[in-house]
């Protein structure tokens, strides 16, 4: 396990960025299916008092998978991967830098730094880092949602999607869904509080402390609890990222909540939850695994460099 006080926050940040890109590439088809299940609808025709009436029905995860295979092939599952990787790398670079920097600041001020962060300290650190990350990365996720929903046929890059959004909808649209995203800061707070406390327990009870395998499993457990408890807000955030093409589309989070409940019931807030849980848990597990491996490697290299520096310094003193 890499010592948090020994390793620079920037090292944690870069390791998390690389780990996030790798984990996103592995699990992205599940991201696509989850997004489509949250945002896509199909028209169903029924009869009401002798007149035909149409209503929107959200597509299931299975229906989304069949649609992609039939209309776009395997590549359809990777629509928007470019912007997703940009988003997750930026997200992790920002979040982990501020999280680790704040954690290091807190631990340096504590007498028993080896005991790690307390639950309250984890919550405070996660809240600050999460809010900074939301405002830094929201435009990328708005572009990613648009690209994913439109499919591979639009051949739109992240940069062109951002330009198109600004041109057609205004720069404010890049921050659509910021309110639910800020509420979703609860997600990493729950995730990292669970991770930190389980990590502290392992470090206290196991010789050698946390390993990458431990990080894989407790990262997955933390994400399972976090995503399961905040999923309705994840759905709201995805819906708010879409362009309003109808006068009936809500413009506020409360309007979206009311419309989803009226048209789809409670179930509407949980469309695609099974695939989202699978994706987010796997992504988090791989992220923590890769991050721990990369951070540990960086820490070992840092120790070697410092040891060489100390030897060179000692030799200079002897020669004098």
From TrEMBL:
<dbReference type="GO" id="GO:0051724">
    <property type="term" value="F:NAD transmembrane transporter activity"/>
</dbReference>
<dbReference type="GO" id="GO:0005347">
    <property type="term" value="F:ATP transmembrane transporter activity"/>
</dbReference>
<feature type="repeat" description="Solcar">
    <location>
        <begin position="210"/>
        <end position="297"/>
    </location>
</feature>
<keyword id="KW-0677">Repeat</keyword>
<feature type="transmembrane region" description="Helical">
    <location>
        <begin position="84"/>
        <end position="107"/>
    </location>
</feature>
<dbReference type="GO" id="GO:0015217">
    <property type="term" value="F:ADP transmembrane transporter activity"/>
</dbReference>
<dbReference type="InterPro" id="IPR018108">
    <property type="entry name" value="MCP_transmembrane"/>
</dbReference>
<feature type="transmembrane region" description="Helical">
    <location>
        <begin position="173"/>
        <end position="195"/>
    </location>
</feature>
<dbReference type="GO" id="GO:0015228">
    <property type="term" value="F:coenzyme A transmembrane transporter activity"/>
</dbReference>
<dbReference type="GO" id="GO:0005778">
    <property type="term" value="C:peroxisomal membrane"/>
</dbReference>
<dbReference type="InterPro" id="IPR023395">
    <property type="entry name" value="MCP_dom_sf"/>
</dbReference>
<dbReference type="InterPro" id="IPR052217">
    <property type="entry name" value="Mito/Peroxisomal_Carrier"/>
</dbReference>
<dbReference type="GO" id="GO:0044610">
    <property type="term" value="F:FMN transmembrane transporter activity"/>
</dbReference>
<dbReference type="Pfam" id="PF00153">
    <property type="entry name" value="Mito_carr"/>
</dbReference>
<protein>
    <submittedName>
        <fullName>Mitochondrial carrier</fullName>
    </submittedName>
</protein>
<comment type="similarity">
    <text>Belongs to the mitochondrial carrier (TC 2.A.29) family.</text>
</comment>
<feature type="repeat" description="Solcar">
    <location>
        <begin position="117"/>
        <end position="201"/>
    </location>
</feature>
<keyword id="KW-1133">Transmembrane helix</keyword>
<dbReference type="GO" id="GO:0080122">
    <property type="term" value="F:AMP transmembrane transporter activity"/>
</dbReference>
<keyword id="KW-0812">Transmembrane</keyword>
<keyword id="KW-0576">Peroxisome</keyword>
<feature type="transmembrane region" description="Helical">
    <location>
        <begin position="215"/>
        <end position="234"/>
    </location>
</feature>
<keyword id="KW-0472">Membrane</keyword>
<dbReference type="GO" id="GO:0015230">
    <property type="term" value="F:FAD transmembrane transporter activity"/>
</dbReference>
<feature type="repeat" description="Solcar">
    <location>
        <begin position="7"/>
        <end position="105"/>
    </location>
</feature>
<keyword id="KW-0813">Transport</keyword>
């Amino acid at each position: 396990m890499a010592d948090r006080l020994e390793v620079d926050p920037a090292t944690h940040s870069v390791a998390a960025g690389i780990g996030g890109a790798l984990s996103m590439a592995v699990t992205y088809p599940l991201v696509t299916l989850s997004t489509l299940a949250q945002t896509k609808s199909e028209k169903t025709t029924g009869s009401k008092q002798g007149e035909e009436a149409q209503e929107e029905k959200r597509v299931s995860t299975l229906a989304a998978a069949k649609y992609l295979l039939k209309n776009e092939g395997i590549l359809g599952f990777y629509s928007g991967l470019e912007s997703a990787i940009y988003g997750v790398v930026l997200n992790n670079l920002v979040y982990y830098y501020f999280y680790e920097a704040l954690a290091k600041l807190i631990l340096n001020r504590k007498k028993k730094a080896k005991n790690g962060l307390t639950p309250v300290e984890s919550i405070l650190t996660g809240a600050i880092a999460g809010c900074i990350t939301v405002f830094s990365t929201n435009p990328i996720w708005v572009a990613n949602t648009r690209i994913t929903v439109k499919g591979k046929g639009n051949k739109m890059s992240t940069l062109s999607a951002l330009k198109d959004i600004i041109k057609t909808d205004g720069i404010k649209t890049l921050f659509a869904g910021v309110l639910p995203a800020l509420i979703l800061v609860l997600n990493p707070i729950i995730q990292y509080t669970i991770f930190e406390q389980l990590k502290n327990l392992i470090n206290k009870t196991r010789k050698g402390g946390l390993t990458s395998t431990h990080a894989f499993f407790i990262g997955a457990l933390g994400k399972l609890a976090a995503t399961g408890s905040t999923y309705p807000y994840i759905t709201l955030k995805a819906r708010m990222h879409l362009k309003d093409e109808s006068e009936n589309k809500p413009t506020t989070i409360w309007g979206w909540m009311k419309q989803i409940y009226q048209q789809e019931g409670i179930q509407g807030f949980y469309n695609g939850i099974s695939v989202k849980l699978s994706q987010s848990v796997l992504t988090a597990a791989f992220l923590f695994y890769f991050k721990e491996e990369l951070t540990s490697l960086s820490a070992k290299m840092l120790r070697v460099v410092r040891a060489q520096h100390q030897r060179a310094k000692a030799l200079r003193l002897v020669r004098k």
